[in-house]
TrEMBL record:
Protein name: Nipsnap homolog 3A (C. elegans)
Native organism: Cynoglossus semilaevis (Tongue sole)
Family recorded in the similarity comment: Belongs to the NipSnap family.
Residues annotated as domain NIPSNAP: 38-135, 147-246
Source organism phylogeny: Eukaryota, Metazoa, Chordata, Craniata, Vertebrata
Xref: PANTHER family: NIPSNAP-RELATED, PROTEIN NIPSNAP HOMOLOG 3B
A biological process from GO: mitophagy
Amino acid sequence: MNRIRSFLLKSAAVNATAAAQPRVYISSGHQQQHQTFYELRTYCLHPHQTASFLKLTNEKIHLRTAHSQLIGYWSVEYGGLNQVFHIWKYDSYAQRAAVRAALAQDATWNSEYLSKASQMMMNQDNEVTYLVPWSNLKNAPQEGGVYELVTYQMHPGGPAVWGKAFQAALTARDAPGYGNLLGAFHSEVGLLNRVHALWWYASADQRAELRHKSHTDARIVAAVREGVAHLESQNNKLLFACPFSPMK
């Protein structure tokens, strides 16, 4: 009887410990269900050549979009002077590799655009991201307005640690009267545990007004307070869509 009782006690302890552990389906990663990813690119331009770069890109971007899908292209107005930010969509890493190889062999692209544009850049940065599982990429409700790119650097551990709190904080603001969340992207290659949220507002003044309003909403304040416990830092940029941008 003592042996049986000891065995049952040990089994109960093991089961309790197992129940306390995260389930195997809880991943520390992005839980991406398909291969599609988005490459986020930021170029810093020489101040005296920003206008020339945008003019050249407006004239020659069709040479680039012949190879892969451009989601949006913006100039940074606040939060990073003389910068452009753009998002490209790929079905897989193999597709991106094929696109890059084709561009390297595209004489027109290299002679009419790349050789000129590269002289106008100070540096380039890129990041591979996935849409978070609960986010869908949407277009702005209307053309014009101002876009806001908010970047959150979260504590290490991935969505298994901070995913629910982060989702609650963002979706609390993505409601009528507070703004339009167009997409939330989780980094896969680049600085990890980073999430980018792309918002749209009718104007910069409307954004300021809605931000002030949200600070007095107890529901949003509570959601943000819980999420900030997992946050290391954040920054933002206000963007204006270029004339050739698919997202206007």
